[in-house]
Design brief:
four-stranded antiparallel sheet
Length: 316
Amino acid sequence: MTQLSIKEFFPTAFLNESTFNHSLGENFTLCENENVIFHWADYDETCDAFKAAIETNSELKDEYRKKELSLGRLALIPVWIRTDKKVHQTTMFELYERYILNQVQVSLGVDPFGPIQISFISGTGPFRSLAIAECFNKSTYKDFVMVYLIQGKLPKRDFRIRMKAKVLMEYGENFSKAELIGVEQLTSNGILFSLDSDLFLKDISVLNEIRILIDTDALKEGKDKSLNDLRTHLSQYAFNLLYSSRAEDSLLCQVKDFNIQSSFDFYKNKKIYLFISYDELKASSGSKIHAIKNFVFYAKNLIREHYNFNLLSKSA
């Protein structure tokens, strides 16, 4: 098989040209201001294809090996964690690995999100009170996730599109209060939102229902367009994609139906992430959910068809 560059692997319409390079961390944009992004690691089929490309593309292979070596050096950095029963000696590599694989609580007996006593000097201290996640570098964390996806140590993800959009959430008696919340991802199975953790804990977690207002017209109109046309179309909604203040655009959500998550940098961003499946959403109009699901399915097929075509056409 002939080597594929990233330019050949994905169309120019997908590429973030401001940071364009042969990078394993490359994002592919569907909107000029990067409000709608696809990343190769966010789909099991592109993840497999990229893994195959690393084997044949010398530049990708070199970068991948450099990332592996860089992560491996973290094993040279000792860390001591003091619990009620003992002082555990580990390394930064093991700390990242256990955290990413959700093994921190089991292996060290500590809360992965709560404060712990940690030292980078010796087993006798001095110790500082930190959350484990506060010890992590965001870029290094991403590299760990990408390398472990390629190595098969993490489960591959179902298709998703990353978003940078704000929508209105209505809550309280007769839905009389409103706050802007983030739309982080549209996935094959549901929607991931983000909001301030204090707002969620004090006001939202005690409620039965909330309403989220989403205008799906841009998604509905973008369906069936080519990749270049889709990028042009979504760029018209650069600052108001999905936003609505109309009651008829509301999605009624039961708070108990949300899957609540926090990110590794929770103590820095103070965000709570709420995932809700399409099946759990009750819309004023069933066409709203249908439009979102159709757009995600359409984008998924566009990506699949494009890279399959390029792989087949480049085969020797």
